[in-house]
């Protein structure tokens, strides 16, 4: 019986320590003749960001995703058929009330009874299988941040002609307590490229298990 009780407690403990996940809302819009092919070069939407070491890492991750979907990566934007403009950001956060469940024993276990028969007092004990569940909650205030990623694919020839023609655009947004976008960037990028290019104009909510970076 004690062994079973320990197993139940262990299960509750593991459930409370389950890996976190990142929930991301994504949207995608593209032209009717959009095709996943050709050479593409990834650059930052803001020119000053291209020299950032942070962007260098994100750029590599974007290139890996685009290559896995069928594009060939061009290191020189001047030689690419398409330019993928990337931008990302995080806000300063907003306070939110969070309710955390408290787990405990909800029933069963050892019970005691008292009585008397013919003037003789007696006590008795009984035991039933204990049950466990939510016994209450604890409220706290947390700061929730909004993180976003944007991808715009533009026809390179149109850029050279001076009138940019966008063929694809995608947006990813998530909310959570991670205060740095680097901590959730990989999970959000995974959501952005899930079933790429995605259904045109549809909002999707995609959950990706956290890598534990934040």
Task: Outline the structure in words.
21% of the residues lie in helices and 49% in strands. The chain is α+β, with helices and mostly antiparallel strands and 214 residues long. It has 2 domains: 2-97 and 142-209, Double Stranded RNA Binding Domain (2-Layer Sandwich); 100-138, no CATH class. Strands 1, 2, 3, 4, 5, 6, 7 and 8 form an 8-stranded mixed sheet that branches. A hairpin with a 2-residue loop joins strand 5 and strand 6 (120-155). Helix 2 packs parallel to helix 4 (185-192). The radius of gyration is 27 Å and the shape is elongated. Mean pLDDT is 86; it is low at 1-18.
Core attributes:
disordered N terminus, about 210 residues, DUF4136, 8 strands, signal, Double Stranded RNA Binding Domain, alpha+beta, DUF4136 domain-containing protein
Give the overall form: elongated
CATH topology category name of the largest domain: Double Stranded RNA Binding Domain
In CATH, the architecture of the largest domain is: 2-Layer Sandwich
The total beta strand count reads 8
Low-confidence segments, given as residue ranges, are: 1-18
CATH class of the largest domain: Alpha Beta
Q: Helical amount among residues, as a percent range?
A: 10-25%
How many individual helices?
A: 4
Question: What do the pLDDT scores average to?
Answer: 86
């Amino acid at each position: 019986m004690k062994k079973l009780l320990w197993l139940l407690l262990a299960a509750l403990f593991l459930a409370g320590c389950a890996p976190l996940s990142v929930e991301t809302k994504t949207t995608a819009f593209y032209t009717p003749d959009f095709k996943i092919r050709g050479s593409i070069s990834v650059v930052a939407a803001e020119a000053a960001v291209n020299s950032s070491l942070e962007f260098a890492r994100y750029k590599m991750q974007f290139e890996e995703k685009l290559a896995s979907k069928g594009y060939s990566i061009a290191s020189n934007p001047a030689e690419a058929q398409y330019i993928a403009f990337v931008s990302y950001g995080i806000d300063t956060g907003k306070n939110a009330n969070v309710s955390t469940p408290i787990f405990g024993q909800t029933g069963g276990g050892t019970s005691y009874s008292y009585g008397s028969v013919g003037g003789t007092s007696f006590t008795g004990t009984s035991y039933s299988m204990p049950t466990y569940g939510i016994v209450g909650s604890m409220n706290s205030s947390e700061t929730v941040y909004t993180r976003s990623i944007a991808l715009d694919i533009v026809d390179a020839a149109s850029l050279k002609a001076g009138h940019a023609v966008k063929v694809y655009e995608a947006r990813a947004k998530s909310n959570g307590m991670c205060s740095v976008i680097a901590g959730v960037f990989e999970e959000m990028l995974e959501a952005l490229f899930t079933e790429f290019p995605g259904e045109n104009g549809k909002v999707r909510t995609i959950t990706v298990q956290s890598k534990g970076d934040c």
